[in-house]
Amino acid sequence: MTLAEKITLLRRQRGWSQEDLAERMGVSRQSVSKWESAQSIPDINRILELSRIFEVSTDYLLKNEANLSTESAAPASEPADEKPAARRLSCADAEQYLDAVKRESTMNGIGAAMCVLSPIPLIVCAEMPLGAAFGMAALLILIAAAVVLFIVSESAMKPYERYKNEPIVLDRAAESYVREIQAQNRPGHTLRIACGTVLCILGALPMILCGILDCSDQIMQLTVGLLLAIVAFAVWLFVTAGVRGGGYDLLLQEGEYTPARKKFRYFEDIYWPIVTAIYLAWSFLTMDWHITWIIWPVAGCLSSVLSAILKRNGGGDS
Q1: How far apart are CA 142 and CA 122, in angstroms?
Q2: What is the pLDDT of residues 192-246, one digit of tens each?
């Protein structure tokens, strides 16, 4: 294990971000980042400071021995067996996991969008002969298909549950790969959230205009259907962005996946299923499908806010 890997492991064992360590060391976060990526090596004074802060010997930090156990890096005041050895992931492991997360985000996004789309046939065809029966049948089929997607998605991610339940650490090549992909996709992630929010805000305009112009009931029903279609696309954007962002956080042990934020680790796993359950329960109990869609833009914005809070409190910039 190299010095760079040891610094990364010791920092993550304590649940610190790079900024946290930099503050304790009196250096910039960029300096810590360069140490951990092996772009530079701390001088002897910094080595001594690292030894004091992490409560390990300088021999442990400086000797490049592959068989040094992670237990020897644990603080002297804590029993070594209290912290399980971190699972090391290679670049291939990280790439495989991110591919699985991408598929999961697509299936979950489509499933959530189908839940929003499901009442459109019921609303649009309500005044037609047998329209209510056809609409209800279409609604149930779409919801059933969405549930199947959720189940298949969850089953496909089962092999990676151990990544959430155990401490993990990426090797140098894997971390560089994940950070590069994360940086490449960050503009797209931001764009998805921004577009989804704008669509949810502007999607109600056709219905508002119909109300002002006193349009017929049939036209009003069509505008409600259009509104739900716009919201469904926005929901797809929110879900895909959130799930993929959570995948990067898990591999890098950032945000809600830092050791210090264990109680929030299942945020992404339970958030959208709960939102879907609330939407369906409220909609079926009241049959106000033209109103209950508001859950999705609110949930999407709230998801971004909660994720940002968790990242800040949990040391998101690692």
Answers
A1: 12
A2: 999 988 998 888 888 788 888 888 878 888 888 888 899 899 989 998 998 999 8
Residue indicated by tokens 């690292």? 50
Distance between start and end Cα atoms, the chain: 20
pLDDT below 50 — which residues of the chain?
65-83, 263, 314-318
Residue pLDDT, tens place only, 58-78: 888 887 644 444 444 444 444
Q: Who contacts 51 (Cβ-Cβ below 8 Å, separation ≥6)?
A: 57, 58, 60, 61
Q: Which amino acid is at 2?
A: T
Residue 185's CB is within 10 A of a number of other CB atoms, namely: 17
Question: How many CB atoms within 10 Å of residue 67?
Answer: 5
pTM of the predicted model as reported, rounded to 2 decimal places? 0.61
DSSP state for residue 1 in the 8-state scheme: -
How far is Cα 111 from Cα 277, in angstroms, rounded to an integer?
A: 12
Query: Can you list the pairs that 295-299 forms with residues at least 24 positions away whose Cβ atoms lie under 8 Å?
Result: 296/112, 296/116, 296/200, 296/231, 296/234, 296/235, 296/238, 297/196, 297/197, 297/200, 297/201, 297/231, 297/234, 299/238, 299/271, 299/272, 299/275
The secondary structure of residue 37, as a DSSP letter, is T
